[in-house]
Amino acid sequence: MATKRTHAENLELAKARVGAAKEPEKKVPAPKQLNLELWPDAVRSLPNSVLRGALFGVSVTRKTHKKRTLIAALENYEIRFKGETFNQTDLDTLQGMLHLARLHPLGTRVEFSVHSFLKELGRGVGKEQHEQFKEQIARLIGGVVEITSLKDKKTFIGTLVQKAFRDEETGRYVVIFDEDMLQLYQTGHTLIDWEQRQALGKNNLAKWLQGFYASHAKPFPYKVETIFNLCGSTTDRLGDFRKLLRLALDQLVNVGAIQSWTIDPKTDLVEVVNVPSQTQLKHLAKAKKRPKSNPR
Predict the structure, then answer these.
(1) CA dist 168 → 111, 119, 133, 164 (Å)
(2) Does residue 9 sit within a domain?
(3) Which positions ≥6 away from 245 have C-beta within 8 Å?
(4) Residues 163, 183: contact at Cβ < 8 Å?
């Protein structure tokens, strides 16, 4: 049986209810919006892990990895891939869409006209190019990447494009990037001069080299064979690749991406004098000021 309240108890209960109603509601903080860095329109930005290995290779011949397959990369990254392999044309498409996505929080819809997008990439706008773009979107959504930064002890597992939608009447696209894409940028990223990249035309090796060397403030000398493996070349003979490499490096000098290059005939080491960005110049200046450790 419920106990009856006294008049005084009912009065106190009413006062408590009125007081609670007058208390301001506690504001729940809005979820933090995760945005890419707002880089200038003249450049594109890509994670270093994407530029320092064969995840986006130079071959026009594609393979399909049915299991998680180890991909060649510099020693500070461990990359595995499952799906149809990517190349530099796929990378052009990815960085073009990321360039649009930088204006929006990650995870939101990024809408664009495929006609304008293809023109921005310097491609034709016919049926063939539209079909190529459809294939690239499907490939980027379908390829599962596993990128481990050995320095930061962090691994990204997922697809580089989360999902996409297409309006069949207007030809407009919507793409969505996962918020976790930001993790790839936080472990290091590089600004790519877009005008230089477009000037490289269809030379996939030159495009790969541009991104690779741009990601280094002061590049180390690498053997021709090392570069051959890192870029995912399918050239049969190393001697033939060396000829292609020389032509590609010359093209980088011509567009202003690097100052000069040499290949030592004895060691087969490729030495490149880079054109460092303002950020890289600051990094180099700080490195000079650090006290040198005593030799052991």
Answers:
(1) 14, 19, 14, 13
(2) no
(3) 205, 224, 227, 228, 263, 270
(4) no
Residue 15 lies in a domain: no
Token pair of 107, please? 């995870």
The DSSP secondary-structure symbol of 44 reads E
pLDDT per residue as tens digits for the range 199-211: 999 999 999 999 9
Tell me the pTM: 0.83
Q: 108-113: long-range contacts at Cβ-Cβ below 8 A with a sequence spacing of 24 or more?
A: 108/176, 109/174, 109/175, 109/176, 110/174, 110/175, 110/176, 110/177, 111/172, 111/173, 111/174, 112/172, 112/173, 112/175, 113/170, 113/171, 113/172, 113/173
Tokens of 95: 């960085």
Mind spelling out the 3-state secondary structure of 239-280?
A: HHHHHHHHHHHHHHHHHCCEEEEEECCCCCEEEEEECCCHHH
Tens of pLDDT, residue by residue over 94-132, are: 999 999 999 999 999 999 999 999 999 999 999 999 999
Report the domain count for the chain. 1
